[in-house]
Amino acid sequence: MSKAAVCGPKSAPEKFEQLASWNKLLFNRFLHLAAECREQKRTEELMQWCSVAAWFASRKGWFGELSSSVLEAELLHAARSLPEPPRRTSSSNRPRWLHVLTEAYATLGHTNLCRRWIQYDPEVVHDVIITDQKIATPPNLAQAVKQTGGDCVVLDPGLSLLERARQLRSYAWQNSDVVVLHIHPEDVMATVAFGVPGGPPVLLVNHADHVFWVGCSIADLILDIRASGHAWTKEARGVERTEILPLPLAAGADSEADRAAAREARARVRSQLGIREDEVMFLTVGNPRKYEPVGGLNFADTAVEILRRCKNARMIAVGPRDEGPWRAAKKATSGSFLAVGFQPDSTLFCKAADVYLEGFPAGSLTAVLEAGESGLACVRAPADVIPPFASDGAGMDVIPQPANCAEYVEQALALGQNKKSRTVLGQSLQQAIRACHCAEGWRARLGQIRSGMPRTHSVNPDFRSTPVARHRRDWLLEYLFRDNEALEPGALAEDVFVEAWRRTTGKAELDETLWNELSAQGSLPERDSLFRLNARIRRQGIRSRLIARAGLALSAGKRDVARKLAYTCLWNTSSSIADLEWIKLLLKSHLNPKWLKSMRRLKFGLA
What digits encode the pLDDT tens for the residues 66-85? Predict the structure, then answer.
């Protein structure tokens, strides 16, 4: 099979150059609006517009830069408006560390990182504060905190950004010896909370190393999770205060009883999947969006090629559902390929598998590491996928990375057809991962970092972002806009200004200056006008804002308030009646919570 048969052609760079220029134009406009708020001493609105800018840049507003000293300068100005509380006086032999999250989830990677950190570091009292939690706090996180003697604090998401920043600063200064940030890329509250010198030192975990994020100026130390993210921190974000702290993983036990349990789990899972013991089981795990083809990088087609050439083999995809291209792959392989959707514990499938295949065009570092820790031989995403979208880092060097999709197939075939080779590679990978990512090895690395930490917090506003190489910028733009072949600036502006209605309290609309600048950079549809575009933004924005407020009311148990907001939304925008999010909100606001739980069990989609 030729490389072209799997990888396909590349997209024209001119399209991405224009798209990056639109994104940078919109990003700068949001910073301009934040600056206007600063001049008028409207600090809350300044934070809101910075939040819009950061959200946009970290999502579809990518323009090739991973940080912005201009954006953070606005937030540092807001930080000076908050009072400075008294500093904590330690009264215990055990230091107290505060972990800050924007939102916490039961299973997703950055929350698991925080929870395992807490579990692996029992010498410290760990507190957690969550600044924008809209669902129940995950019990496993709360339990881990409690076992160290710490507290789990959830701020009211209905409070202003400025007030939550004030509460975060006050809690940290009066209760903590060290602050560890596990925040979302667009979170501006932490930068305002820790945007003045003094208080405990601040560590920032770079768990979203492939996207733009806020916080370079307040991080006394950035903790990168892998080598490629470490390089981007220095080269692109403009920050030298950085160390690598590998992802903490749970290590499997090696007693005879544990090995017997693993063999039993393997037999049970394979039986449920209809896979015989003499068949080779390939496994891949990831969010379905990460597998959507980009620039000819098509995992489903590559999987079909592997199964056609590897006799007596089956492949299981955890995450993707049995639909669309995945069902086509199943049909093309006469049922040898099976997508089983989301599973609460993918490690059970690792016990049943023989070879792990990292998905592409966007890989999953945690999934690869968990597979390797379980003893599976792994095939990394091909080098056609630029780092840090393909996995790398501590423990991964024992796996040779295929140069392209054709080599990816050959590596998979070699492991699938040779049991001894995959056993040797699996054991080597397991040992390497456990040495870096599990228990004692991970604690030793944390101890090295701890010994070199600063003792007090300082602010470092002088970092300078450097654009990444153009081919890297364009690769991510192609990935982000893989669903949008026909791109035009009006649609891009419409999407982000609708989001701005949700994140701000004013009227988020394009002015004539921005309209003319967008028109100059790219042709706008003749049927469109500034008036029509703003009318659409206003309708959708009002609905988005009201739905967001109703959701906050529901999470606070105020169903009557949520119900009123839902009907207000319908009164203002009659098209809400066709909006699935609005329909779910209306039902939730009317139905008894006990009924909702029953309906969720019936999979009515109201979760």
Answer: 999 999 999 999 999 999 99
Asked if the model's pLDDT at residue 576 lies above 90, the reply is no
For residue 285, the SS3 value is: strand
94: its two tokens: 């055990």
Beta bridge partners of 96: 125
Q: Where are the beta strands (DSSP E) in 194-279?
A: 202-206, 221-224, 242-244
Mean pLDDT of 493-520: 90
Could you tell me the two tokens for 218? 């307040």
Task: Grade residue 559 by pLDDT with cuts at 50, 70 and 90.
Answer: confident
Would you list the domain boundaries of the chain?
95-248+446-451, 256-437
CA–CA dist 193, 199 (Å, integer): 10
At 177 the three-state DSSP class reads coil
Q: State how far the alpha carbon of 343 is from the alpha carbons of 114, 188, 373, 413, in Å.
A: 21, 33, 19, 26
Handedness of CA 383, 387, 389, 391 (dihedral sign): positive
- Supply the pLDDT for residue 346: 84
Same CATH topology for 95-248+446-451 and 256-437: the answer is: yes
Residue 534, classed as helix, strand or coil, is helix
What is the rounded CA–CA span in Å between residue 91 and residue 174?
Answer: 12
**CATH T-level assignment (fold) for domain 256-437:** Rossmann fold (3.40.50)
Q: Are 109 and 248 a contacting pair, CB within 8 Å?
A: no
Average pLDDT over the chain, rounded to an integer: 88
**Contact in structure between 20 and 477 (CB atoms under 8 Å):** yes
> Does domain 95-248+446-451 fall into CATH 3.40.50.2000?
yes
User: Residue 341 forms beta bridges with which residues?
Assistant: 318
Closest CA to 100 of 39, 153, 30, 40: 153
Element (H, E) at 298: none
